[in-house]
Structure formats: structure tokens, C-alpha cells
Write a structure and sequence with these properties.
This protein has five helices and eight strands; from the N terminus they run H-H-E-E-E-E-H-H-E-E-E-E-H. It is of the alpha+beta class. The protein has two domains: about 10-45; about 50-155, no CATH class. Strands 1-2 form a two-stranded antiparallel sheet. It has a two-stranded antiparallel sheet with strand order 3-4. A two-stranded antiparallel sheet has the order 5-6. Strand 1 (about 70) and strand 2 (about 75) form a beta hairpin. The termini are far apart.
Length: about 160
């Protein structure tokens, strides 16, 4: 087992090759770290907007949870609404201003026609659905039967 001595030139060439490998590895590592940090920050900052956009499509044809709507503005919210009691019924609003509007205009705002049958119903007792896929406007239904009939007729 004789060890072959490397010349200065061969040693220098090996060192250059190892330096290139190290630089490539370093570049790939920092690039992937940079991309990961950017993606994390984007999702962290825009998470509520992402969930809101997803809900506008995913909840079409399904019952919308009442805590995700403003019953005064008839819109899907990107956050959980405020739960407030008025005249023994629970209503959900995006802010206090919408609640005050409902209190001041109770007859006009608390009741709405069923979107399929046309019967007048209280918003607090209604099933809620999305009017169109990808839009935040909500509609109210008297029962599960009219809810299902409405979405069957839309297909």
C-alpha cells in the first residue's frame, strides 16, 4: 500500500472541485430556506383571505354556519361574527353598527323571504346558503327541503 503523493497542482485542482461542491450546496440550502420563509410569510399574512376565498367556493350547496355571516348585510364574513340576542332570538353580525341597524329597522331586516318558496321567515331561524359560487352573498331558507330544492334547481 504505497501512498501516492499529490503534486501541488493536483491538490489545488481537488481543492477547487471541493470548493465548487460546497458553494453549490450552500447556494441550494440558502435558496430553499429563502423560498420557505417567503411562502411562510405569505400564508401567515394572507391566511384569513385564503380561508375566505376557499369558503366562497366550498360552502356553495352546503349549509353555511351562522357564525360566518352578517345577518344585516347578508354577506359571508372572513371572520367569526358577533353573536347577539334580540327579542329572544340569536342573530350574528359583523360589528355593532350592523346590530344597531337591525334594532332600528327590525321589521325590514330581521325577516326575509325564503329563496325558493317565497315564504317570509326570520333570519335567526333560517338555514343559510350561498347564492352563487365564488361570491359572498348569502340567502335564507325555511327548511332543509327548500334548501335542497333550490340547489337542485341551480344545477
Amino acid at each position: 500500500m504505497s501512498k501516492k503523493k499529490l503534486t501541488k497542482r493536483e491538490l489545488h485542482e481537488r481543492q477547487i472541485i471541493e470548493d465548487k461542491k460546497f458553494k453549490r450546496t450552500l447556494l441550494i440550502s440558502f435558496s430553499s430556506l429563502f423560498v420557505f420563509i417567503i411562502l411562510y410569510l405569505v400564508f401567515h399574512v394572507f391566511w384569513n383571505d385564503t380561508k375566505y376565498a376557499y369558503r366562497q367556493y366550498a360552502l356553495f350547496g352546503k349549509e353555511v354556519p351562522v357564525e360566518l355571516v352578517c345577518m344585516n348585510g347578508n354577506k359571508l364574513l372572513n371572520h367569526t361574527g358577533k353573536k347577539l340576542l334580540y327579542k329572544g332570538k340569536t342573530y350574528f353580525f359583523c360589528n355593532q353598527k350592523c346590530y344597531d341597524h337591525l334594532v332600528n329597522h327590525f321589521q325590514e331586516d330581521a325577516f326575509t323571504p325564503d329563496s325558493f318558496s317565497g315564504d317570509t321567515i326570520c333570519k335567526a331561524d333560517a338555514l343559510i346558503g350561498l347564492k352563487n359560487r365564488g361570491e359572498p352573498e348569502i340567502i335564507y331558507f325555511q327548511n332543509i327541503k327548500t334548501f335542497n330544492q333550490y340547489y337542485k334547481s341551480r344545477k
